[in-house]
Amino acid sequence: MKVKVSLDSGVYSATLADNPTSQSFWQKLPIESKLDSYGHNEKVVYMNDKLSTENAPAAYTGKAGDITYYAPWGNIAMFLDKGPHAPGLIYMGKFDGDLTALSRSTRIKFEQEE
């Protein structure tokens, strides 16, 4: 599943994994939101609705460019560098764009790519 990702500085893409959490996210698109920094390594999007956690592993270690869902807080977390090993973190896919652009952005829009 390809996703169009619009940031302050341009339009990029992402590729979602084939799992229930990613499919749940895909069904909610388009999503437009404020993009917050969390620590020095993550950009986060706070979701209004929870995503599916069916068949999700107990924990995951984030990597640079990963798009993940942090189930305990119900937010999307995108890693700019290696992330922590965290219970409730679910891999959803990979941001295919410029991580510098992601790190500097304050708004984001996710859309299904045709």
UniProtKB/TrEMBL annotation:
Gene3D superfamilies: 2.40.100.20. Pfam families: Cyclophil_like2. Residues 7-106 form the Cyclophilin-like domain. This is Cyclophilin-like domain-containing protein. It comes from Rodentibacter genomosp. 2.
